């Protein structure tokens, strides 16, 4: 009982200190306690309530007198507040009555001031609008009298100065909408004038160009006459028009520089005398004001480019007469004279960069046209007149500042094109000579026939001179014929070179270059084609090598021939040399290569008919038939090389060298083909019997190499071609793997030329063959030991191959 009392006190304290919403758990603890605890708690609660009531009563008794005093004072103040309210209400009523009249007068003043401000605003806006209307009226008047440039200025003032001030008004919006239409109208009218101008200059370009070219030609004639009169050696001057200057910045004066004493003075024409340039000036100004100056420049340049393309397009029959070329050149000169005038009298419409670009485009087109049409010119006089026109054309345009070096280069191209025609003709002559040749030494029966040959070809051989008739010259019949045709070509080329009025030195240089082209291109091509023809055999190829040697030696006589007809010493520093040496050397090399190629092809044909039984148990005891046929073919072929006629040591050395190289190449190719046959990936199995049979074939190859099929080899040089095969076959025949593996990598190794990967490939093929052919090998001790040995060697070879690859 005594323990429950403190617990009830704690619960009461929690109830007093806890929020009312959270007393539930506290009250629940009263009911969860001992029996009759609820009754005891209620008694305790009642006692607590009585205590609180007594405390409240004491506090009220303490403050009661002060409360009474405060209520009394408040009742006194209420009476004074009622009086004050009555006074304030009366004062407010009287103030409202007095302010009604003031408010009415104030509103009237505000209304008058608003009216006054509106009137002032209307006056100000009218003052702003009147100038706009006046300017627009002025614009309409200017448009009616076609003063478009002034109209544009007026529109600019309207847009930038006047209309922004009154842009909020509807009539201004209408004006703003009309201004772009007026501008477009002005642009269309100006563009129409420009088109008329472009049409005008297109029509008058030929007259302008003809006058300019005529005066440039007169200036050149006058300068030439002046040089002769003063007896001053100025040489040839192809650029006299360079010193011509513009008389005025606003016009192009095509001056007359040469006058005959009996002729009347002619009127000096200018570009403005033939064409009115005012439309282009006016249009340029209008577009500049509109801010479309760049658009106008692009349009003008685009249209002029189109006109340039039309001018540069020649007539299909232009090449038939000189007048066709003259008309073509006149139109081009007139076009660029106008462009030069526009360049100097306007700012920005045409720039030097633009004219240079346009000229470069035109120059490329002109050169292409002249190249094409000059190729149709078969008349030498017409070609010469064309050259004179090109010179005048170039002089005229160079006077206006256009670079014309490529035109002067074109003169040499025209000459080269003439030479091209000659080269085509001589190519046919060379082919006919080669077709008719029998590729055998020239037989001479007597002194007269010998004289006839050496009169055509400079041949000298003291050893041959000592021999009695009949005898044979080392070269074939085509050699003197080719030499005579080269001289005829030089004569034909000289005819055109003389028409260029060049100095003897220049003519000499031209002739040598033309002859070089004949030798290095035409004759070289004919020789190369001849060598590649299938009907040309090994004997003919050897004769071609001899022929090219004599033609090469004759080149020095051709140089003497050119020097004699041009009177220019070969000792001159700038004299070109003939490059026939390289031509004939290349032909010889090609012929030698063709010999080696034909031999290798023949070897391949024999190899293709080889039919080995790679699974045979024993060899046949004799070499394969295909190989014996191949060796017999090689032996007979090299005998033909050996028995060729050698009239001097040079020919003998040359034939011997070719034969030796061919023999070595054939042996190497044969060895490589046999090796490839063994290592062919399609060949899966090789028996020891097949190896023995293959060894017999290689022995025959070695016997052939040892028999010295071609004299001149030192020691066993030729046999070394088969050394790789020999060491490989010895390794497998002797089965000397211990020695190979022990000495591998040493310079003194017996099997130095045997590559581990090659040996591994061949050994794996033999391993597979042994497994297939010896099904019961596992029951025979010897076969088992052999298989284990092969597997051991294979592992060691693979380690060597892997070591080589890692080292690499």
Automatic annotation (TrEMBL):
Annotated Pfam families: EXOC6_Sec15_N (PF20651), Sec15_C (PF04091)
User: From which domain of life does this come?
Assistant: Eukaryota
What keywords does the record list, in alphabetical order? Exocytosis, Transport
Q: Which GO terms describe its biological process?
A: Golgi to plasma membrane transport; intracellular protein transport; vesicle tethering involved in exocytosis
Has the keyword Transport been applied to this entry?
yes
Claim: Cytoplasm is one of the keywords in the record: no
> Which terms in the GO cellular component ontology are assigned?
exocyst; plasma membrane
Ranges for domain Exocyst complex component EXOC6/Sec15 N-terminal come to 44-213
- Where would I find the Exocyst complex subunit EXOC6/Sec15 C-terminal domain in this sequence? 407-765
Which PANTHER family does the record match to this protein? EXOCYST COMPLEX COMPONENT 6, SEC15
Which family does the similarity line name? Answer: Belongs to the SEC15 family.
**Function, as annotated:** Component of the exocyst complex involved in the docking of exocytic vesicles with fusion sites on the plasma membrane.
Protein name per Swiss-Prot or TrEMBL: Exocyst complex component
